[in-house]
Amino acid sequence: AQTVTQSQPEMSVQEAETVTLSCTYDTSESDYYLFWYKQPPSRQMILVIRQEAYKQQNATENRFSVNFQKAAKSFSLKISDSQLGDAAMYFCAYQGAQKLVFGQGTRLTINP
Amino acid sequence: GAGVSQSPRYKVAKRGQDVALRCDPISGHVSLFWYQQALGQGPEFLTYFQNEAQLDKSGLPSDRFFAERPEGSVSTLKIQRTQQEDSAVYLCASATEGFYEQYFGPGTRLTVT
Fold first, then answer.
1. A104: contact with B, CB 8 A cutoff
2. Which residues of A touch B93 (CB under 8 A)?
3. Nearest CB partner across the interface for B33, out of A33, A99, A104
4. For B86-100, what is the mean pLDDT?
5. Taking chain A, what is the end-to-end CA distance rounded to the nearest angstrom?
6. A40-56 pLDDT, tens per residue?
7. CB–CB of A47 and B89 under 8 A?
8. Which residues lie across from B109 on neighbouring strands?
């Protein structure tokens, strides 16, 4: 079975600074997708960024980028120029065939 | 367009009561998922539908949990004889065929007293 591990329960960063959230996963599959989701206190899960395992190029979405290391099974999220609105729980997730497997989450606090 | 909606947003049930949680997916999305999120945890998979067919129910924690999607659109998650350990947020997500992204609803917070 696939597992996803987020080893940082909480992180904090100064506004406008850069922060990196860590994620590792375990799978025997070669074809899969990886995601970072953001969950604010309102509970709505919002997709931040997606990475296809067959792509070597790291995904980027505006201030959000990933460092995907397939051999190491590592998938970290970098947030540049942090903003107050980035404060939320962040979940790393793995998708093989259909269902998502989530990590435990990292609570990100932005200090003004 | 409209996103995934769930109702009710909050539900309080006495232990032993039956509850029904509703999910309205995005129109045209053939895939529908239910997840359970305990307080402070990541969501965990419960069950998956493709149209009206329930293709995977391996995550349902007991036979008290039942899900249906009779017309391939709206889905209902039913929990019979609720227990305190059922207290959680229940998230619904939908996706297109050949999906790359699941779109989540706001969830239903169930509290069993």
1. yes
2. 45, 100
3. A99
4. 89
5. 41
6. 987 789 999 999 999 98
7. no
8. B10, B89
